[in-house]
Design brief:
This protein is α+β, with helices and mostly antiparallel strands. The protein has one domain. Helices cover 22% and strands 22% of the residues. A two-stranded parallel ribbon has the order 1-2. The mean pLDDT is 88.
Length: 46
């Protein structure tokens, strides 16, 4: 990995996956991008 601080984000309606080599630095979400972003926008720090 060239930059250990990098995070790979994947958002897709159906199939979500990250390459195995960066799986530990990946966030994969399945769903409609509008709905997911709306939900993330409503999340408050606890």
């Amino acid at each position: 990995m060239q930059n250990p601080k990098v995070v790979y984000a994947c958002l897709n309606l159906k199939d979500v996956a990250a390459p195995q080599v960066i799986a530990g630095q990946s966030v994969c979400m399945q769903g409609d991008i509008g709905e997911v972003l709306s939900e993330l926008n409503n999340v408050q720090d606890v």
